[in-house]
Specification:
It contains 6 helices and 5 strands; from the N terminus they run βααβααβααββ. By secondary structure, the chain is of the alpha/beta class. The longest helix has 15 residues. It is globular.
């Protein structure tokens, strides 16, 4: 059975119809489900997904809303362990600023369970560790303030 690890952006998009990536995330997930792919979310990405709903609705209701999305799509949560942490640190050390630690944790989780990755973040570097598919619209770079 094929496995796919979802980045936080994909799960956020699935649960928010106003998100710019909502339709693309839905299409990608439906297509993968039809192909028999199982989905997983790293515990670190689960925490990222929870932030806005908890801020808006409180801890209990925010978690409940996110859990509905996970249950609807059948997304399992992968706990962070020392093997994943070491692999994430190695990836971060290898790619430097091009791969942030939260993203390295997603990639390390995928490598650990021998899965591919589905993300909405087009800025990820090319990675040899896992196959990465980017869904959604590319966002224009945010202009940097002069300083």
């Amino acid at each position: 059975m094929a496995l796919t690890v979802l980045d936080a952006g994909v799960v956020i998009a699935l649960g928010d119809r106003a998100d710019v990536h909502h339709q693309a995330a839905q299409r990608a997930v439906r297509s993968a489900q039809a192909a028999g792919i199982s989905f997983f979310l790293p515990a670190s990405a689960f925490a990222e997904v929870l932030v806005a709903p908890i801020r808006k609705h409180g801890a209990i209701e925010g978690r409940h809303r996110v859990q509905r999305v996970l249950d609807l799509v059948s997304i399992g949560v992968v706990l962070l362990d020392s093997d994943i942490a070491v692999l994430a640190a190695s990836l971060r050390a290898q790619h430097g600023r091009r791969l942030r630690l939260p993203d390295a944790l997603v990639v390390a989780t995928a490598a650990h369970i021998q899965a591919s990755v589905l993300t909405t973040d087009a800025r990820w570097p090319k990675l040899a560790a896992v196959a990465v598919t980017i869904v959604g619209k590319r966002r224009s770079p945010t202009p940097r303030a002069a300083g």
